[in-house]
Amino acid sequence: MNEIVGLIVGLTLTVMIYSYLLGDNPLYRIAVHILVGVSAAYAGVVIIRSVFAPVMQQIGQNPTDPANIYWLAPLLFIALLFLRRMPGIGWLSNLTLAVLMGVGAAVALLGALTGTLIPQVTGLQAATPLQGLIIAVLTILTLLAFQFTPFRAGKTEVWEPAGWQKGVALAGRAILSITFGAVFALVLSASLVLLASRINFYLTEFLRLLL
Fold first, then answer.
1. pLDDT attached to residue 55
2. Are 106 and 84 members of one domain?
3. Of 1, 47, 104, 144, which has the fewest CB atoms closer than 10 Å, so is most exposed?
4. Quick one: pLDDT band at residue 66, thresholds 50, 70, 90?
């Protein structure tokens, strides 16, 4: 009985999510709200059980331990968040948000550099020098597409890019368009594969229960 209920709920939510293909509708919004609510609840339970409960247990077992003072800072930031809705002192919660955004941006940037960009640059080995040259030229053209300081044309007061800048920017945008098109095709193919796998899963499970 539990398996049948789980399959029906899963199938219903899957159909509600894929109803977005027909346009934005209430069924899709309800499914998204359920997903966000369940995810937030799960994250809250995990944080309480994996972070707060061990910390409180550690402090309760040895309240006089000097190492417990390190937990005052995060507890203080958490307390400041609760002041968000209080008039007059609600701005103090911005300190916590600033720390979270600053640390999050620093961690994300460091992770992107050390985990993605640097390994790709150091691990790239072109099959031929010509292939390496093409990769370098396409990369440079893509970066030069983002120009916000055009030169002044002649003696006029109108700021507009020079001819070579227009050509470089056009080439860079063309490369970006091709890249985005390829990425979209990959995402679409992956979505179709996921849809096919879900349909196959539900058909297999329902046939197994019926037979």
1. 82
2. yes
3. 1
4. confident
State both tokens at 129: 């020098």
Q: How many CB atoms lie within 10 A of CB 196?
A: 10
State whether 54 and 89 are in the same domain. no
- Pair 172, 141: CB distance under 8 Å: yes
Residue 95: pLDDT band (50, 70, 90) is confident
Say which residues have a Cβ less than 8 Å from residue 20's Cβ, sequence separation at least 6.
28
DSSP class per residue in 46-70? HHIIIIIHHHHHHHHH-TT-GGGGG
**Euclidean distance between CA atoms 27 and 194, whole angstroms:** 20
Pair (136, 196) in one structural domain: yes
Residues 2, 31 within the same domain: yes
Domain count, the chain: 3
Last residue of a domain, one of 87, 107, 124: 124
Kind and range of the H or E element at 171? helix 163-210
21: domain range?
Answer: 1-64
Q: Is residue 150 within 8 Å of 160, Cβ to Cβ?
A: yes
**Global pTM?**
0.55
Tell me the pLDDT band of 161, cut-offs 50, 70 and 90.
low
pLDDT at position 41, please?
95
